[in-house]
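One such given next:
>
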Amino acid sequence: MATTDLMGGKLQVYQRGNSRFWQARASVGGKQRQFSTKKESLAQASKAAEDWYITLKAKDRVGILESGPTFRKAADQFQKEYGVITDGQRSPKWTEGHELRLRVHLVPFFGDLPINKLTAGKVQEYRVHRMTTYMLPNPHSKGQHKPKTTPPARSTLHNEIVTLSLVLQTAQRHGWLEHLPNLSAPYKSQAKRTHRPWFSPEEYKQLYEAARKYAREEVVENYRWNAEQVYDFILFMANTGLRPDEAYNLEYRDVKIVEDDATGDEILEIEVRGKRGVGHCKSMPRAVSVYRRLLARAKPVQDESRRERQRRRREGGEAPPAPAQEFPQLTDKLFPGNHIRLFNNLLDRIGLKLDRDGKPRTAYSLRHTYICMRLMEGADIYQIAKNCRTSVEMIEKHYAIHLKHTIDTSAINVMKPKPDKTKWKKTRAAVTKSVRNDDDI
């Protein structure tokens, strides 16, 4: 390996056998440092190395010499650990979200910064950067979307700060960072609590009646099975409170029709597998008839395609016998397709896609509808949280806060009784007369 000394032996320029570029190394600030000059000529490499060395010495003299692992190294370490440690506990989509935020936004901004130099002020600079450069094309994004015309949403920035926090925690565990900086957003008060999109009782009735009419009258025969599935999906979700992913994971063997000991009604006992692992749910009585319809509905069969039918007619062949009907088995899923497009088209047709605040309604809104309706009927909030596999705090924060039915007027409209002045005057007169009689004695 060819080596050349510069600056009185304090700086060396060398070239590895497998590289055409010259490298530089020097000891500055008590640490051996290396630098690639990206030059193939020794003269040009020597000039670049001397500039690099002088810059390092100047930074060391004023106390701003950067040292330690960079944010990029901490981010790489986090990505190596996160997917392995959380395997089975976090969805692959959530893990990919961390990787995407790091690649597109966080690493390009913090990448070369030493992790111990990442302060609360630098995090604030990142927020300002994201709020002022959203209209510019991002060279680190692989998508072909046009730049956005609105600043990133509060939830978007929140998720990016969460990813940043996880990287900093990784650095702290490895001893690269002594303490975590303050990541809270200054100058802003607590965000107002807004309710999640749901269907009021009138809107819910409008939704399921439109779905029923479409499934029975308006849809063509080829799409009838899908329309009937969407209709039953709406009723099933609004009477069980399942999350959409929990409903899509549900198999027929996970559901049982039982007689409830407390009410004597037939209900569904559901073994739920989803966001919170394995849990249990007891449905409303209306969900039983929906489940029986799903059991009795034959699965769609694959008939001959249009191309096969045209070829058969050209060749003069006979039509194949109609395929035998198959009914759901215990290991089949209740809702094998999500039917997102059909559900959204239904909402658009009846004008319920957006709520009054402009928030889009999705399949998740049916879960929110279940929780709100149970609260409106006076159900115990703890039992609702337990049945929906969530917390009382989440229900109070996102559901109960905007429902007028949760306010008990008998405990609010309390009036202090007014004293009886007539009785008070009679008592005073009696006392006065008694005193006068005593005086006479």
